[in-house]
Amino acid sequence: MDDTPRKNAPPTILVVDDKADSRQLLMRMLRLATHAVVLEARDGDEALKEFVAHQPCLTFLDIDMPGTDGLAALSAIRAISPEASIVMVSGTSSAINVKEALSLGAAGFVVKPYSAGRILAVLQKFEKASSRVIMKEESR
Questions:
Q1: Is residue 36 part of a domain?
Q2: Is residue 16 part of a domain?
């Protein structure tokens, strides 16, 4: 299968959170800091559909959501794409949540409320690990 159009397409970031205000805040931060197309999903089931449809280079995935929670969605995404870069987000940073997310293959963990510095650090870490440039020059 020829994936040339995907290679030439702008990078895509997926933001998954059941709380609209948190989702919109993170999306706004990402749109300001990157040249990526930023997509959204409200829950784990929607996240899986969006992931399959768009194959984002980076996914921010909330842990606590109704239905399919973030940890279950993380496992499902990893089964689809073992190399996916997924950063878990949560309002609580319990050692259990962090340990489980990392053991399931999360690339990182961000505690809400979001800080611009922490999001920029995650983007820089992603760029370094993937050798993909997604940040705007002025965000560096």
A1: yes
A2: yes
In a domain, 135, yes or no: no
**Structure tokens, 140:** 């560096």
For 46, the token pair is: 């929607």
Residue 75's closest CA among 114, 106, 119? 106
Mean pLDDT score across all residues of the chain: 92
pLDDT of residue 6: 57
104-133 tens-digit pLDDT: 999 999 999 999 999 999 999 999 999 999
Inter-residue contact 57 to 15 (CB < 8 Å): no
* Number of domains making up the chain: 1
In sequence order, which ranges of 14-106 are alpha helices (DSSP H)?
Answer: 20-33, 44-54, 70-80, 95-103
CATH number of residue 124's parent domain: 3.40.50.2300
Spell out the residues 6+ positions from residue 78 whose beta carbon is closer than 8 angstroms to its own: 84, 86, 104, 105
Q: Is the pLDDT of residue 4 over 70?
A: no
Q: Which candidate, 21, 51, 9, places its Cα nearest to that of 39? A: 51
**What range defines the domain where residue 101 resides?**
10-129
> Model pTM greater than 0.90?
yes
